[in-house]
Amino acid sequence: MDCRYHSAPDWDGSGSQPPPVTMLRSLRCLCRLQPTIGHVRTMSQYPPTFREPTLPPEQTDEAREQLTFSPIKAAPSDLTSSAFDHPAVKKFTNIIMKGGDKNLAQILMAKTFERIKRTQIQRLHATRDAASEGTPDQDEEPVCDPLQVFLKALENSKPRLQLVPIIRGGITYQGRVVRLKQELHRQCEANRAYAHYTYG
Amino acid sequence: MLPRCRLTRLCRLGLRPMSAAAAPEPAPSVFRTSVSDPREHSRSDLGRLYTVDREDHRRLFQVTGLRKSLSAQARTFCELALMVRQPALNVLDSLRASDPSRPSLRFLLYGPYGGGKSTTVAHVLHWAAASGWLLVHFPEADRWGLRFREVTASASDPQAVDHPVDAALWLAHFRAQNAARLAELDLRTGETYTWSRREATEAGSPLTDLVELGVTRGKHASQCVLALLAELKAHASAGRCRLLMAVEKVNAFWCDSTARREDGSTVKFGDMTVIRAAEQLLRPDWSGGAVLTTIAPVRGGPEGSHLPRHQLGADGWRALEPFVPIRVDDMSRAETYTMIDYFLERRWLQAPAAATERGKQELFFRSGGNPGKLAEICSMY
Description:
The complex is a heterodimer of chains A (200) and B (381). With 200 residues, chain A is α+β, with helices and mostly antiparallel strands. Chain A has helices at residues 3-6, 21-27, 61-68, 87-96, 102-132, 146-157, 181-190; strands spanning 36-37, 40-41, 160-168, 171-179.
């Protein structure tokens, strides 16, 4: 497998791997002018032999030995060995940063996470109050981890993708197209008269 | 369920009514001490957290008095828990051993920003209230000159400056802290105070009359504070009560304020009636109590060293000397781990890494043991 894709980080932390190599090669003609497909960069200033920089807590001994004899890419300035770092949070901090004011962006993220936590903990107490008084709430206990809330919000915000047939040069490809959630819901609403047909 | 009016009032006070399920009675653990009466705190409680009784919390810090971060934490955790640390025990030991017939001791807490000076003051205030002392507590002395709501020229002295709103609020804070004890002691005014042609407080009136007048009439509130503190000073010296005055950021008293007179001249803190009232008790000419002060860099104050001589300046040093200096330092590793365990127990630290040894080491390293910094870092995780 090409080293480039093997070492590409999955920035949303979902653990999902990049699409298979064959599909990417077939789509390159469609995405000729764009350096990225999904979350995988296909153009890099580094040759494929260069490894990603890692810090000691994440390195195994074998990995460290291999890295000794490999060239390594330059480390980004926000690379840390912190046990609390998350790539999605770092990425989002950079996105909300304006004018290079990373300090302010980090403060805003921290305050947002704090507010999420306080709100959720209040809800947790309210849920437990209701449960102890014998009027249990219909929902389960709210998630208090602000990171989990944030990642779920990211997930909810992602566009839904659909495969549609696209004909180019006589060959039908299955291209990925963004379909808005609203359009799907509109279609479902328009067809609601046929909902009971599913029961046969 | 409580009636709605009482519910909203309690929520406004930051004390949400909780059932046992939401804030269960904490089991004795390594990081908590079950001794909630500060009169019984000793060396064996060092480095552990004690929970302030809800009624005491409401009485002492209902109107104001805690730092915003600590107040928010108490609201979220459904309890106010303070760590028993060496500086507070030093002050308490001195206060227990002090002779009420001797001039009042003056303590000065200093140390790094966020190190726990205000929390130490809160602990000592709790002890004093439990021991039946009267409290005169100025939570943020710099507010009077830098973030005041309104200032007016004083009626009695044109050069002096009154705080109609802030003084009334402060008297409400004083009343909340001392109402019960004042009623027990039944202290009376020693002289007559004339407020206007028709209004006067006669000699022999209860001190609570002075307090009520100031709370309801902002115009006279600053003069009421001046009269009230003069009376309390006289009663303490006569042995009728014990009095603790706590002034945080006392170094502000010798700075310039941001207030300006009509002619554009700067108003100094020393020109303010309420500050002059507090300065009465800073002098060493009374007995039967103690003065607890803290210093912290304030806007408009001297830049540079955070140590007492530099922050107080020559005037402040001359006014406060001699005092007992007490350094409130950052937490030790053990104390920091205790705080982290407390945050974990209260569900404040949510990240799984925070429960691991590696995570705790990182939190200690990044905060350097500074309580304020630790709270800031943990707010995100």
